[in-house]
Backbone:
């Protein structure tokens, strides 16, 4: 590894700093004979999987809760306020966030490689490179927020939604710079398995966010301005807390101070993240496109509210799926890097079965509470009825989303980012979105038709990912 960041990094993501897996094992899994052997090996692999997934799930749960709390309070302000927050979050803020998530993914490779090779001083340098790139992206995104009202009108949103969302977007500009500082430090700490620090900061941010949302929006009735200020403050609290944790000397040799070398080799550092950026952007832009088309329906405010609530619920399920995505990626990449193809393949089986069971459990809970949970997000009886009608489709989406996220983690661990990115674009935007639009408008299915398009895209991508995994020669991959 060269210090200018120009070396070709490994495709595996190392979070535990050990090429032999969590327990330092240097042998592949043996033949599995009978149910007893299968159960024993399944339990062993499950422990390794949840050791990695647990903290990642908890952190994702807390951070996703920030926007959910904001949407809940906005929903009780009125349907137009909820629609404004939802549209700003999914369209205006969602576009640059997807790009920044992808750009920061370069750290998963670079920091993982440096930590695994005991070149600890390189981790801090790579984090600084990512800070530079993401802050440039945050500055470039500012005009999108400034002219959010005009952009949304151009995209066909109603004048009332566009106006309120535009006002909210202006107050949300600081959030982008918080992302630019927080995402690199998160990847930096994850590469060193300092996941508990990230989780503690996340839960503190969630508690503070809930209290100040209740105080400023619920009690003092300061409206959407208060919602934006509290949300900005929560993300900046997370970014600053992680920054101070790093500066406090808790990372040893990994942080040795700021360096001008952070400005060297930025292009080579940027190139490794392009495929992953496409994958992440497509996931976020898919939801953005569906919300956008919901705004074209006759009952635009009701449709956008119902769709945004359903996407929000799906997002909660995705917090679990995200943790399994990270864990499956690490397990597969570690075992492939350790020349353990049978363990890598068995890890795929365990993570896939686990994600399927989790998805089914979430769906069962959702179906049983379908008449109660919509009232949490909105006082409007019309919105609640729309959400209740969407619940069966939402349940199906949860199952496919959990499995798809896990299989995507396997793809990342195996280094298949580029083909999966092409595949995702076809599934989502050639089949998913057009199908949803046709069913919503031509067959008069409304917001349910749009969601059917989402299910079609998810189902197709999940099946193709499963097919890729089934035909893979794991010995050759290793």
Residues:
């Amino acid at each position: 590894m060269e210090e200018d960041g120009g070396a070709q990094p490994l495709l595996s993501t190392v979070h535990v700093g050990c090429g032999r897996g969590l327990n330092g094992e240097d042998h592949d899994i043996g033949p599995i004979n009978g149910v007893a052997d299968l159960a024993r090996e399944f339990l062993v692999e499950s422990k390794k999987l949840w050791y990695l997934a647990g903290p990642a799930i908890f952190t994702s749960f807390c951070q996703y809760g920030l926007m959910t709390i904001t949407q809940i309070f906005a929903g009780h302000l009125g349907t137009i306020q909820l629609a404004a927050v939802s549209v700003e979050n999914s369209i205006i803020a969602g576009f640059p966030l997807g790009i920044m998530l992808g750009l920061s993914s370069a750290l998963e490779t670079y920091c993982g490689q440096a930590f695994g090779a005991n070149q600890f001083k390189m981790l801090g340098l790579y984090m600084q490179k990512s800070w530079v790139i993401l802050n440039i992206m945050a500055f470039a995104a500012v005009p999108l927020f400034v002219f959010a009202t005009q952009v949304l009108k151009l995209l066909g949103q109603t004048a009332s939604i566009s106006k309120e969302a535009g006002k909210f977007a202006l107050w949300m500009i600081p959030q982008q710079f918080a992302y630019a500082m927080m995402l690199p430090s998160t990847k930096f700490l994850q590469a060193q398995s300092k996941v508990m620090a990230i989780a503690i900061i996340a839960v503190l941010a969630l508690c503070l966010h809930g209290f100040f949302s209740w105080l400023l929006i619920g009690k003092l009735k300061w409206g959407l301005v208060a919602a934006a200020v509290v949300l900005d403050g929560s993300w900046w609290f997370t970014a600053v807390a992680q920054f101070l944790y790093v500066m406090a000397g808790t990372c040893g040799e990994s942080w040795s101070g700021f360096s001008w070398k952070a400005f060297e080799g930025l292009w080579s550092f940027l190139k490794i993240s392009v495929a992953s950026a496409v994958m992440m952007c497509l996931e976020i832009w898919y939801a953005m496109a569906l919300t956008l088309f919901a705004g074209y329906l006759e009952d635009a405010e009701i449709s956008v509210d119902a769709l945004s609530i359903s996407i929000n619920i799906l997002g909660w399920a995705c917090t679990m799926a995200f943790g399994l995505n990270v864990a499956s990626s690490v397990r597969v990449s570690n075992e492939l890097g350790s020349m353990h193809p049978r363990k890598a393949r068995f890890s795929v089986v365990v993570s896939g079965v686990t994600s399927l069971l989790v998805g089914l459990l979430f769906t069962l809970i959702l179906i049983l509470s379908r008449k109660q949970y919509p009232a949490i997000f909105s006082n409007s009886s019309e919105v609640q009825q729309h959400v209740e009608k969407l619940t069966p489709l939402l349940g199906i989406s949860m199952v496919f989303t959990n499995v798809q996220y896990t299989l995507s983690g396997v793809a990342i661990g195996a280094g298949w980012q580029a083909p999966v990115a092409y595949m995702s674009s076809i599934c989502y935007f050639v089949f998913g979105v057009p199908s949803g639009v046709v069913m919503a408008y031509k067959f008069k299915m409304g917001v349910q038709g749009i969601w059917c398009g989402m299910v079609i895209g998810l189902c197709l991508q999940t099946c193709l990912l499963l097919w890729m995994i089934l035909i893979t020669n794991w010995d050759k991959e290793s």
User: Anything to note?
Assistant: Residues 273-478 form one domain. The CA atoms of residues 38 and 44 lie 10 Å apart. The mean pLDDT is 82.
